[in-house]
Amino acid sequence: MRHITHFAVTLLSAAALAMAPPAQAPANAIGSTPVRTFAYTVGGIAMNIPTGCMFTHIVRGGGRRISYQNAGVDCAFVGALNAGFCNWRIDFAYANTNTNTKVYRTSRGRTHTECRIDPMRSNSPQKLPRYGKTCARLHVNGTRLASRCHHITR
Fold first, then answer.
1. Among the four 3, 85, 114, 139, which has the fewest Cβ within 10 Å?
2. Global pTM exceeds 0.70
3. Is there a contact between 138 and 109 (Cβ–Cβ < 8 Å)?
4. pLDDT by residue (tens digit) across 12-21?
5. DSSP alpha helices (H): ranges in the chain?
């Protein structure tokens, strides 16, 4: 009898969920891309950033609302031994996904002159005017080194 009651409750719950209005699906995404190897000079000192660093972008929200967005660099192995990223900034860009992928809004980050092995930035919540994509972009010394995008779809 206990198994029949459990089955009946499960069946009724499934039926109630099927008849309920559809909830908006969460739009959570996380992804990483490698930071390319590069070298630059700061104050006459050569800075070499080897491979082993990943740029990660996290997005949380639902529909066209982004409730949380963060991007940062994690380095491992030889990459963790470097002097860090100097004169860095992280931007968040929002674009259409039609053929021209036009960026309609950019949240430009502050340029940090201090050197950090783990640069990171969070952005304020956003209400996007249309579906499209959001991208996080890592710049060091004015050069874009990595970009990671996520599509915001219905």
1. 3
2. yes
3. no
4. 333 333 333 3
5. 2-19
How far apart, in whole angstroms, are the C-alpha atoms of residue 135 and residue 142? 17
Name 130's bridge partners: none
Q: Cβ neighbours of residue 144 under 8 Å, at least 6 residues apart?
A: 137, 138
Q: Kindly state the tokens that stand for 16.
A: 């109630």
- At 77-125, the pLDDT tens digits run 655 566 678 899 999 999 987 767 789 999 999 999 988 889 999 999 9
Query: Which three-class secondary structure state does DSSP give residue 126?
Result: strand
Is the Cβ–Cβ distance between 83 and 59 less than 8 Å?
A: no
| Domains of the chain and any CATH numbers | 23-152 (2.60.40)
Chain position carrying tokens 């860095």? 88
